[in-house]
Amino acid sequence: MSDSEFDRRRHTAASSLAERKLDALLVSFSPNLRYLTGFTGSNGSLLVLPDRSILFTDPRYQIQAGQEVTCQVKIAKGPLVDAVAAAIARLGLRRIGYEPARMSCDFFQSLQSKLPMKASLEPAAGWIEALRMVKSPEEIARIRRSVETNSRAFEQAVARARPGMKEQDLAAELEYRMRRLGAEKPSFETIVAAGVRSALPHAQPTAARFATGDLVVVDMGALEDGYCSDMTRMLFFGSPGAKVKRAYRAVREAQLAAIDAVRPGQAAARIDRAARTVLKAYGLDRAFVHSTGHGLGLEIHEPPRIGKRDKTRLEAGMAITIEPGVYLEGFGGIRIEDTVVVTTQGCEILTPTSKELRLI
Questions:
Q1: What's the rounded Cα separation, in Å, for the pair 50 and 93?
Q2: Which phi and psi angles does 344 have, rounded to 5°?
Q3: b/e map of 290-316 (b: 16 or more CB within 10 Å)?
């Protein structure tokens, strides 16, 4: 990401301080820190002021911060909270916004106890997350690369899948391949679940071995250049029967209907409804137990949530997943998921992998 883009983001945040009646914003959540500064260390806090920003970190990251960050850097010799509190006092700040869902209770209480009497911490929930929803062209390019790496890893690993192979072994192969292709790590714990266990939406891979007749869900994502991808595809060992084919057809049609509904100005709930309408026609709507998708970027789950009650209006530049599924106890589950980007005319499907049921 260019230095000017980080400068622009900090300026955008700073320009909203006055209307929120704040003197500063304190950011300590790692993805938000990275979004505003490019800093990738594990310990940092950013004080956004009207005319500048200060990043606080510890001596372990002195060299790294100097290489990654263009704003002022303060290296704290002791606890970070002490350095932040001292800066607030020195600058005479009165109202400091903070991230209530992101700051630890310990840090909050410690900082509050060290503030000057006239200073106060004011909740500013979801502020930076809202800015992160619409991606820049460079962010979309990074997500695209992550998606492509993820899909290549899938093709390489699935080519090795055989009856008798363990769920854990295929998951390990998927993660090995994505790392070899350039990913930093998986963007979440890889899901591989076979047979009746495929009805568990967030199943963890086990030592269970694939057998003929197994339906297998593979949900995987790569983290590359700091940005996430997410994809779900289905495997079948052998020849699927009528029930599997019908359920698969229902989910694929639901996923395509939801994708077709994606466009700027459309409410997120409308995308969810498009998928559920198709599944209802198949009598499978009650077997769809999660939302149709979610935003992604620096985190695997970001706003907006593509769910029943989400009123967020989609905007060009948002990166979201579309992933309807059905889960039938004693039978199995089917989910199909792509990463897509909202465009001015509709959306672009970034995921290149075929949606067809992969027969092995």
A1: 11
A2: -65, -25
A3: ebbbbbbbbbbebbbbbbeebebebeb
* CATH number of the structural domain spanning residue 83: 3.40.350.10
> Is there a contact between 128 and 6 (Cβ–Cβ < 8 Å)?
no
Write out the residue range of the structural domain in which residue 108 sits.
Answer: 3-132
Number of domains in the chain: 2
**Whole-number pLDDT of residue 39:** 97
**Ramachandran angles phi, psi of 180, nearest 5°:** -60, -30
Give one DSSP letter per residue of 63-112, joined into a string: HHHHHH--SEEEE-SS-HHHHHHHHHHHHT--EEEE-TTTS-HHHHHHHH
Q: Count other Cβ atoms within 10 Å, centred on residue 60.
A: 12
338, 331 Cβ separation under 8 angstroms: no
Domain identity same for 146 and 271: yes
Residue 269 above 90 pLDDT? yes
150 and 120 both lie in a single domain? no
Question: In degrees, to the nearest 5, what angle opens at C-alpha 146 toward C-alphas 142 and 151?
Answer: 150
**Would you tell me how many other CB atoms lie within 10 Å of the CB of residue 110?**
16
**Which residue among 110, 132, 154 closes a domain?**
132
Nearest-angstrom CA–CA distance, 89 and 171: 51
Whether residue 292 contacts residue 271, with contact meaning beta carbons closer than 8 Å, is answered with yes
Looking at residue 171, which CATH number applies to its domain?
Answer: 3.90.230.10
Mean pLDDT, all residues of the chain:
97
d(CA 307, CA 293): 7
**How, if at all, do strands 24-27 and 95-98 pair?**
parallel
- 230 by DSSP, 3-state: which? coil
pTM summary value:
0.94
Q: Stretch 171-186: mean pLDDT, rounded?
A: 98
CA distance 121 to 102: 14
Task: Identify the domain boundary among 132, 151, 174.
Answer: 132
